[in-house]
Amino acid sequence: LPPEQFTSASAVVTIEGDDAHHLQRVMRAEVGEQVICSNGVDREALVRITQLEKGCVIAEVVEELAMTAEAAVEVWVAQSLPKGDKMETVIQKGTEIGAARFLPFLSERTVVQYDAKKEAKRTERWQKIAKEAAEQAHRNRVPQVDAVYTWKQLLQLAKEADAAWICYEKEDGQQLRPAIQAAAAAGKLGSGKRVLLAVGPEGGFTEQEIEQAEAAGFRSVSLGARILRTETAAMVGLTCLFYETGE
Length: 247
Ligand code: SAM
Fold this sequence. Notes:
By secondary structure, this protein is of the alpha/beta class. It is 35% helix and 23% strand.
């Protein structure tokens, strides 16, 4: 439910739109049944359905639920816009694994056409994919999907992170695992901390981009000796991170 519709004070909730349709038409919900309601941000509760109307479900809160499915560290996945529907895969799988936010961006070798007019609709679709994946994964929060960033804007974001890593297949010094371990030892992966993980497009980052990223505060990291497809790299990075933090 939208946060403004399910605030910390609501004792009764009104479910409308797609969620009401899903409950009534797909789940065949009936009065008296209990379901979990989340505002995707800071509240999750068990609610009992009290009324079913056309396109609208009314329910009362039975019990507050602890939000235990979220990782302590917040991981932002910055993904250079990939071709076709790969961004959808990144968002869907990344949400299941535990990413907190998705930041699509443009880099020198991004090949996909960027159309500002179609931008809002596309972001809306991606946000819906994040919502559905979060529900499927029983997440407490729905990851935010941002509008497309420029390369310069992405570089600025490194400053907002406690650790910022840029995945570079030609990196032969720093592996992701020791970078994660060092960040954990420095207290950068605990509650309230933020990690930014950047992945390049199909053609990879240029050497110049890696230099610029490092100057902006990113650390170039390798995900291993094998070259991963762009849509695989974020999944591997997220999995390694949560494996190491035990989440
Ligand atoms: N065009 C490059 C090549 O053929 O060598 C490969 C680019 S790869 C398909 C796309 C992105 O995935 C890269 O920009 C990087 O961010 C990430 N990536 C893939 N494999 C990686 C690895 N082994 N280590 C670090 N990053 C990797």
